[in-house]
Amino acid sequence: NTNNFGLLIKYVTDGYIYTQPLYVPNVAIPGQGTHNVIYVASEHDTVYAFDADSSAGANGGLLWKTNLGISALSANGEFGTRYCITCYPDIIPEVGITGTPVIDPVSGTLYVNVATREISGTTNYAHRIHALNITNGTEQPFSPVVVSGSVPGAGVDSVGGVMTFNGKQANQRPALTLAGGILYVAYAGYADTDPYHGWLFGYNATNLVRVSIFNTTPNASIGAFGTHT
Q1: In Å, what is the CA distance from 114 to each residue of 58, 72, 74, 101, 119?
Q2: CB of 47 within 8 A of CB of 65?
Q3: Which end of the chain is more exposed for a tag (fewer CB within 10 A), N or C?
Q4: Helix, strand, coil share of the chain (percent; to 5)
């Protein structure tokens, strides 16, 4: 309250936090009782569930955590290099979970976009949507799904009149959104480095089947992105 506002608990994570924390009251955690829970996701691709009221206990207030893949190191010269030819300078030292997850309190599911470098030493990158049980961090039966799709388009990075989602070029920064049973996930680019496009995907929240896809610039030419500096 206004008389005693201040720091109560400090928790340590394995990477920077660009997401907003999410709060759910009265969550039954298997084997640990009922807790008010703070959910946090890191750029190291880890999702945490912390006790919102106390750091006491065997794990110091950590109720569960789960790592969802290998994050992409920013200093790789493979994406976001418009303002730095050997690195992506905005989110450092790694890119993993950037957009704030969303929670469906009815099904007890946390939805999160996870960016990964598929195999160390390669240039293969992917985004996956994960649906996690908020009580224990396990994947729901239909999770995860790789983000993919295409639309008609003749713009830069298209092939044969088809514009295909490029996981290496896509940065998932906006918060995920649930509306009318649909999970919406939006993507743009890293540091204005072309070729980048705006994408919006819609997924059925009950099974993560893609139901819609929209691209903002399917016919944009190289000139539309401006001159590199």
Answers
A1: 29, 10, 15, 10, 15
A2: yes
A3: N
A4: 0, 40, 60
CA distance 129 to 114: 6
* Average pLDDT along the chain: 92
Q: At 75, which amino acid appears?
A: A
The 10s digit of each residue's pLDDT in 22-45 is: 999 999 999 999 999 999 999 999
Task: Give the pTM.
Answer: 0.94
What tokens were used for 186?
């939006």
φ/ψ (deg, to 5) at 204: -65, 120
Both tokens assigned to 87: 């690195």
Is residue 112 scored above 70 in pLDDT?
A: yes
At position 136, the amino acid (one-letter code) is: N
Task: Kindly list the distances between the CA atom of residue 159 and the CA atoms of 78, 187, 192, in Å, as whole numbers in the listed order.
Answer: 21, 20, 21
User: Residue 35: which of 6, 58, 55, 21 has the closest Cα?
Assistant: 55
Torsion, Cα 92 93 96 97, to 10 degrees, reads -50
Q: Is the bond leading into 30 cis (omega within 30 degrees of zero)?
A: no
Cα–Cα distance for residue pair 15/125, rounded to 1 Å: 19
Strands 125-133 and 109-117: antiparallel
The amino acid at 100: T
* Greater pLDDT, 51 or 89: 51
pLDDT for residue 73: 92
Q: Rounded distance, CA 40 to CA 108, Å?
A: 16
Residue matched to tokens 């896509």: 170
